[in-house]
Amino acid sequence: MKKEAEALKTQIEAARKAACDTDMASAASGVAPAPRVQLKTRRTLKGHLAKIYAMHWSTDNKLMVSASQDGKLLIWDSHSGNKVNAVPLKSSWVMTCAYAPSGNLVASGGLDNMCTVYNLKTPVIKTVKELDAHTGYLSCARFLSDTEILTSSGDTTCALWDLETGKQKTVFLNHVGDCMCLALSPDMNSFVSGACDSLAKLWDIRDGQCKQTFQGHTSDINAISFYPSGNAIITGSDDCTCKMYDLRADQEVIGYQDAALNSGVTSLALSVSGRLVFAGYDDFNCNIWDSLKGEKVGVLSGHDNRVSCTGVPVDGMCVCTGSWDSFLKIWN
Amino acid sequence: MSNNSAGGLVSMQKSVKQLRFEAGIRRMKVSQAAADLKAFCLQNAHKDPLLMGVPSSDNPFRPPKSCALF
């Protein structure tokens, strides 16, 4: 059986090679370079008292939620810079937060192994569910709607939960390392996960099947995102590189790396056309990459500690970076 | 000992099943895939505020320059 596994792996590699008649950079050689991107800090959001681990934009392009190990979720109005709400967490060891597309709910989770969902619209913010079944830390959560949420965990699984019953509907099993991140496809039929086994996997949300596996990274994948067309994904890793994998070609088509960069990638977000990749690094910066040409076209410097999270709202009007220095910055 | 090898066998069977599934997918040529990605990017570039820049008058994070205070 081991022989069969090896033979299949060789077959997959050969099929990928056969499809590999060029790479993204060569295909984009005729494209005009992206303009040098110089973004300014428009807001510095001060309020957290400890490291910020995660942030997520609301679909209204104005509100956002951030999570810090000071034990709070803060809801910000990014336009005014004001705090709209504060949600005290039962466990301060938070690693992720999420805003539901409706704007009604937010979720958090971390070393408590649970995903807790809060209703922002009740007169006093209430915990509506504690999703408790993972046997490892909660690394990422994303709402599909007010009734379903996807989670990734240090227990190597991802799960789809029914928020009405509080139970797991589907468990996604295949990674052999802690799952660190997940991203929903634009059509919401699939999602991708990145893990400490240095693999990214594409899953069908409804049937639970792992459809494709992407290799190439040599260390933990900490960040993952879909390209806006839905046909490619971008990953960021502790190996200090980001990679774009095309789903239909089933392979890496370009890498974003620089010999001078020797810090891991913690987070990433794309501009609305997909042309710009904002990648947060352990070296306190967020580098901006031209996704087609693989060149660095800008940098966001201003944080005094690791950039732990980045996010671009749906309308693409700005990029937000969150850091271990306890501040969030909005740039455009 | 025998428990380990039984668990190992099940896990191996699952791996092989998954690999068979993944080996069977159809793959597009990278040249075609890259062309599609490039086309998407370029078609949507004009709608990308971070790429094109945001004029102050439209920037919710920056008030327009003229601000009369009496």
Automatic annotation (TrEMBL), chain A:
WD repeats: 45-86, 131-171, 172-213, 214-255, 300-332
SUPFAM superfamilies attached to this UniProt entry: WD40 repeat-like
InterPro entries, alphabetized: G-protein_beta_1-5, WD40/YVTN_repeat-like_dom_sf, WD40_G-protein_beta-like, WD40_PAC1, WD40_repeat_CS, WD40_repeat_dom_sf, WD40_rpt
Highest taxon, organism lineage: Eukaryota
Family assignment from sequence similarity: Belongs to the WD repeat G protein beta family.
One Pfam family per UniProt: WD40_Gbeta
Coiled coil residues, start to end: none
Keywords: Repeat, Transducer, WD repeat
Name under which the protein is recorded: Guanine nucleotide-binding protein G(I)/G(S)/G(T) subunit beta-3-like
From TrEMBL, chain B:
Membrane topology designation: Lipid-anchor
One Pfam family from the record: G-gamma
The keyword Transcription is annotated on this UniProt entry: no
GO molecular function: G-protein beta-subunit binding
Compartments reported by the entry: Cell membrane
GO cellular component, one term: heterotrimeric G-protein complex
Annotated SUPFAM superfamilies: Transducin (heterotrimeric G protein), gamma chain
Keywords in alphabetical order: Cell membrane, Lipoprotein, Membrane, Methylation, Prenylation, Transducer
PROSITE patterns per UniProt: G_PROTEIN_GAMMA
Assembly and interaction partners: G proteins are composed of 3 units; alpha, beta and gamma.
Protein name per the record: Guanine nucleotide-binding protein subunit gamma
Organism name: Cirrhinus molitorella
